[in-house]
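Quick note —
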Amino acid sequence: MRASATYPCNCILLLLLFLFYLETGATNVHDQSCSPSDLRALYAFARSLDRGIRDWPAANSTRCCGWPGVRCALFSLSAVRVAGLDLSGKGLEGVLSPSLAGLDKLTFLNLSSNSFRGSIPPELLRLKLLEVLDLSSNHLSGELPPGIGNLSNLSRLVVSSNGFTGNIPDVFHDLRKLEVLSAKSNRFVGRLPTSLSSCSMLTVLDLWNNSLGGRIDLDFRRLDRLDTLNLGWNRLQGLIPEALSSCKALKILNLSRNNLSGQVPDKLCRLRSLSFLNLNVNSLSNISQALGVLQDCHNLRVLALAWNFQGEEMPTTGIRGFQRLRAMNIGYCALTGRIPSWLRNCEELRVLGLPWNRLTGEIPSWFGRFDHLFLLDLANNSFYGEIPASLAELKSLMSEIPPQDGDDSSIEFPFFGWSSNQQILEPLKYKHYTDFPPAVNLSYNRLNGSIWKEFGNLRGLHLLDLSWNNLSGSIPEELSSMVNLERLDLSFNNLSGSIPSSLTGLSFLSFFSVAFNHLQGLIPIGGQFLTFPCSSFEGNPGLYSDSLPFCEPVKATYQKEGDVDEDNIAFMGLPFAIGVASGFVFIVYVLMCCWQL
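Predicted structure written out below.
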């Protein structure tokens, strides 16, 4: 009886001693010698580089577990093996050495953000235990080896921002543990690998910015864990798959800049987790149906539909609004009609873009009741009447503190902005919509009346563009209170009087134009005004300066009095350079470009 009673105690004691050994062994594993095979592989890898690895010994060291970036683990009571290699951002240059295949216990390999070139050696894909492979942000080229399909333990594969070409091999059938696949910003062509449908654990699929074509033929019913789908900036065709509605966990969907057509499927209203949707730059139709479906995605925060629905009418009925929406862009669509009243129900809006449409009527005064709105772009429409005085009451622009938002989305937003030569649009990337400079752009409309002196209350405003309208009266001195103003464009109006000298106190002002008005008097001297070219003041024969080079009066060859030709603002076929202010960021979301997921 006594022996049998002590037997369980002895077992427990042995177990505790074993666990203590493992714990202390794991703690001091970096003090132990590496296996000879691991040591040979690491030294061969280091020798293959153009330059060595900083703080790695040149030779005669057997304790590689203490080297920077090397992680070791205890695989048995006596065997310490290299299990991880993290050399991201170490400035390494050279080709990937096949010698890495000698680290046969490797589960984690991160060589991202270096300058590796050449192709992926096939030997590297024999590492059967590999769970994480990150080769992103290098200069790798060639085709992606089909041996990728042999890494059955892989959970994360990241090869983005390289120069890979050819088809993405259709070898994902056995990668049942794969959770993240990012191959964005390469030169892949061909169709989407249908074997990705077998990766039922997949949460992130990011193939943005390649040249993939064909239809989106994945079986989304088997991808119900998908959280992020980024297929933007490719050449995909056909319809938006209705089966996407099966991805109930989907939060981020980017299909922008493809050749998709048809309508937004009715069943997408089931995506109750969807917070970011970018369908910019496709050939979608029926905006009424699209908005009617998407308004039931109750968690939607960002909605980008620009460059679709060409020439359709902005719906005014049948839409309730988007109660949680923070950013909306429906620009560059040549939409007709007026600003719809349902927009006033989008009380959480921070960013609103309706540029380059054919909308008419007066700008509603209720815009001023958007407590969070800090970027409003209504440029290149046919709005008339006075600027609503309520715009000078936008609460988020009255504070000098940049707008904040509780949304912690890590997605990066590429938007379109004009290039410096005014001829093409380029993607401009922002981490988040709150990274945009606070701005009001009402240019290229038919607005009249005066500039409200209360605009001076908008101390947080960075960009104010009222150019190409019919505004009259004087420039209010109170504008000098907009202490964060970086850009002020009042050109091509009917303004009179003098330029307030107090504007020289705007220390952040980098662009200023009052060209082609009816201003008179002395051009102010001092501050940023010493940096502005004569073109900022031309077309005002009554202006003069003792310090700036004399500018000859320029003959007006532009359209005035609100006669902006609507045929020139229909988007398709328009001369893009027609007077759009250089450097002003138009909020055309093309995301996702990247995801610095």
